[in-house]
Amino acid sequence: MRKNARGIPVNNFGDEWGGGVFIERICFEYLPDLGQWEQPERHDRHSFFLLEAGNVTMEIDFQQYHINAPSIIYMHPDQVHRIAAFKNIVVSAWAVTNDNLNAGYLKLLEDILPAAPMALNDRMFALLTEAVSLCIKFSEREKDLLYHSLLKDQINALTALVLSFYWEQRMPSGDRLSRSEFVAKAFKPVNILGNTIGIVKRMGLLDQIQLNALLMKSVEFKNAHDITERLDLTQKRQADSGETEYEIERDILLDMLYQLVKDDVAFVYGESITGLKEQGDQVEVNFKNGAPQTFDLVFGCDGIHSVVRKYWFGAEAAYSRFLQAYFSITIVNKLLIPEYTTQMYSEPGKTVMLNAYNGKTDICLAFFAEQEIAYDYRNEQQQRNIILDQFKNTGWRTAELLEEVQQSTTFYFDKLCQMKMPSWTKGRVALVGDAGYCASPAAGRGGSLAIDGAAALADAFQNCQGDYELAFAHYNHAFRPFIDEVQADVVNFGMEALIPRSQEAIDRRNKEGFGF
């Protein structure tokens, strides 16, 4: 286990575990001392658990499950989990790293995310136990010449069998997280800065954020020959500017917020709204799977492609302002540059940026586009091809990085845009965060703005003694100057710093840093 005070611990595959593939059958009567198992963690591998007997209680991505045998539990490397309790269990467990898994199976595993534990019928259970028993027999033949190859093939066969079960019972695609939603959830850091620091302090979270902050060391501006033309030391930059900033992994912050409200808030997963209707002093909300429910107020905090906004305020196109750029983010589970550093390379109208932290690297590619590009948001390969085509002749390490983009199973693509709305409220419905006033990823403060907006709305309710009409009016009036300033900074400064349009602008940024 690699302990890391700055993030969720990663349980690493030990050298003794068969070179990236492993299987065993284990029995426990009870869990007498939770110890490190009680703490949230994630694996550096794909893990499968066939619960053959007994029951277990565990949290996966902060949702609790009570699981009875026979069941199969699949854990993606990006999923946070912890064991709460179990009793009289028999478990067959196997694990495999990306390098040892069939590429087609990797893609299918991404497609079933988030995969909840699945109860098995008699047919499924019989097939899996038979296959597992055979695989365990192979695992015992360590001295065989082809031991690793045989075990790898059997683990892949087991994975394919589990995949087939999930696809048999898969939910309609609308009930699962989209690829973009999953990547956004994954481990993309959130910046806590400015007004937000005071807000999280009021919430009692500042100490935890400081303890878990990513200690980013530097930003390097590179030329085509991989020579650093400017090095900005993060701590020195913050000291010179007098501004404090904390960067924290999104899942860590989500867990902090969840722990604050879990006893007071009801969470519903795997659901989406299909309509809103205001009726007197309530709003009726229609759901895709469940029965309609009524609420006093509805808050849309569902991101730049907000469904609440679509149903209540109108089509996204009416409020989205294209910033003449597109970007992609690819997360790879290895370090491509020194840890806790950022490197940036630009050519006119194109930028490549690497951000390394906690054993992984974000590959960010952004390019200028005069007009919007027509593409199918459901077709990930088409989006990859757009990036590959745009950057195919770009210098520095770009060719190597495009190989990573092509092979990675974690990819996100979108346009850079802002949400510009005349009002973030209508009737008993209000929008918060990117749904109402996205400043674009170029601002580097999407999560921070969401916290700022939620606090502004909460303060408005307190100041207006709970009168929602007055509170909404105050929210629209008092918070708007701050949003206008942030959005203007992106247009007037942020875009040119992120994607300089000329070699002169690149040279100036590489000489003066982001302060030019």
UniProtKB/TrEMBL annotation:
Transmembrane segments: none annotated. One of its GO terms (molecular function) is FAD binding. InterPro entries: AraC-bd, FAD-bd, FAD/NAD-bd_sf, FAD_aromatic-hydroxylase, HTH-like. Residues 195-460 form the FAD-binding domain. Keywords: DNA-binding. Gene3D superfamilies: FAD/NAD(P)-binding domain (3.50.50.60). GO terms for biological process: regulation of DNA-templated transcription. This is FAD-binding domain-containing protein. It comes from Deminuibacter soli.
